[in-house]
Specification:
- The protein is mainly alpha-helical.
- The protein has ten helices and three strands; from the N terminus they run ααααααβααββαα.
- Strand 2 and strand 3 form a beta hairpin.
């Protein structure tokens, strides 16, 4: 798998690729791995002219057997009174952050959003974020500005103080879905216009017409899901006779 450890078979394929005179990018493509992974593997094991699969694999096994310092205990979860396992929470936060990064969010913004999202209150101050993430106030400020612009959090004043705190709602993903719906509808309209201009009986026009139909179906599904969410308090964890309750 991309990102996993190279196997003995992978290393044999690398050696064969080098023997064929292939570049790192092509070898990586055949293995389904980044070119940088292949480049590092070759560089640490003699270079392209002296790379040997069996020797590289033995070196990797030797490195794996080296004593690794034990992972330090996870810090307690600030303000947590639910008896959660700090290590499990930390591991989940890291994996959730990586997922946000894979979805296109910059890493610092992903760390800030994940840090806020795992809190029961859904609110933290800039000082809280600096302390928890161990980064500079400037980094937090830039990340907050980006996330606020994307509609993924909001600012509010701390009662009786000049400080601000940052809040994520239970409906954090709704603005993104609405933005995706608007973009999808714009693409559908452009595709329909392209089909008209190019002619639906031509290959290019038919391609745009097919795309428009698919995008319109997606837009309709988006609207139905959003309307169902907005009209059904039970889906949002709200009591029928009162405001929403965080679960």
């Amino acid at each position: 798998m991309p990102g996993g450890r190279l196997t003995d078979e992978d290393r044999r394929h690398i050696a064969e690729g080098l023997a064929e005179g292939l570049g790192y990018a092509e070898i990586g493509r055949r293995l389904g791995r980044p070119a940088s992974t292949v480049m590092r593997e070759v560089a640490r094991n003699g270079g392209p002219d002296d790379y040997r699969a069996d020797r590289a694999h033995e070196a990797a096994r030797h490195r794996a057997r080296r004593h690794k310092p034990s992972r330090p205990p996870a810090p307690p979860i600030p303000g947590d009174d639910h008896g959660r396992d700090p290590r499990a929470v930390l591991d989940f936060t890291e994996s959730f952050t990586e997922l946000l990064v894979q979805q296109g969010l910059p890493r610092m913004e992903a760390r800030v959003l994940a840090c806020l999202y795992i809190t029961d209150s859904g609110t933290l101050t800039a000082a809280d974020l600096v302390q928890r993430l161990r980064v500079s106030p400037a980094s937090i400020s830039h990340a907050i500005a980006f996330l606020e612009q994307q509609g993924m959090l909001r600012r509010e004043r701390v009662p009786g103080a000049r400080r601000e705190r940052y809040v994520v709602d239970d409906e954090i993903w709704l603005p993104n879905l609405l933005a995706a719906l608007r973009m999808n509808e714009a693409l559908a309209a452009a595709s329909r216009r392209g089909a008209e201009i190019l002619g639906v009986t031509t290959p290019a026009g038919a391609r745009f017409e097919t795309s428009a139909e698919l995008l319109l179906l997606l837009s309709e599904a988006f609207r139905q899901v959003i309307e169902r969410w907005q009209q059904n308090p039970a889906l949002r964890g709200e009591r029928a006779d009162g405001p929403g309750v965080r679960r």
